[in-house]
């Protein structure tokens, strides 16, 4: 951008563009990245540039698994992403949410399909928090080395089960003692049997282990429990569903008198663990969205530059640059919220849902602008823009919408007059 173009922008827009980094690092108000965090970012970025381009992702989503198994083996094994946040005693790296958020931002930049979200972000924390010592010893090392992938199956929308858009202590989302949902009953041998169906289960068709939320006890002892169901369990039927976002595979899971193992021991705070996992997952989803939004913005800036020609009217270009400056500020604000939430102490950062709301809005805005500018610019570029827009819409359907995430965050912080549980 030359001096005349810069002068045409407002002061705030000039500052936003001047502050734009060549590649996003830490959020402006978060702690600087450590040398180890920088290494995680750059190593993963190099691998994804090699194995997760648009063509490679398209081929990966067409496989039965829905992702590149060889790429996941490298991500989980040499890079250790599958066990990045798991305790070292179970083969993990013992790192915190900030390191995992960095990894999610990089996978989000290229929209790489992988089991990272379903296995590492949604399921592993619940196994670590609620599992018996024997269950943790058996399952967590296999997750850490990438040999076991998992999926969380809930009978209604996952956003409510994780407490992202409402209070999950109302048992109706898991069945509530009524027909529907997924019901758990005691078998004659003392084990458990599951009946019911869950839809929109992320990676549900390919995961080696399902963690199923089911309602037990009827009205008398109504409660929600979590159960372990292996992929080869009799009575388990899994069907891959068409999905708006091809890089986020989903499945319908049917349980027909399926034997299951209770996760942990009763009594356990299952709903509290689900809510804490949801708030932490919101940070990782926000990091993914920030990465995707940043990449979409980079492509749009590049496309805008290619449209500049000598003698061409500059008015439309100036307007577009004003819009891109605003979008840059929106993406950086979302990144700042995301990494501030990632650095919150304790499990289940309260800032997660709010960060996710801002990140989803930033992704939707940048993807929409990218889609408009790339129309007619070539099939490959236009397809990338469409995938970004689909990711934004799909994540809002699964984990939002943004307005409900923001409302729930306000409710939890007592902004509606009474602090939520």
TrEMBL record:
Residues 34-146 form the Acyl-CoA dehydrogenase/oxidase N-terminal domain. InterPro entries: Acyl-CoA_Oxase/DH_mid-dom_sf, AcylCo_DH-like_C, AcylCo_DH/oxidase_C, AcylCoA_DH/ox_N, AcylCoA_DH/ox_N_sf, AcylCoA_DH/oxidase_NM_dom_sf. Residues 283-412 form the Acyl-CoA dehydrogenase/oxidase C-terminal domain. The keyword Membrane does not apply. Residues 1-23 are annotated as: Disordered. Coiled coil: none annotated. It comes from the Bacteria. Keywords: FAD, Flavoprotein, Oxidoreductase. Belongs to the acyl-CoA dehydrogenase family. This is Acyl-CoA/acyl-ACP dehydrogenase.
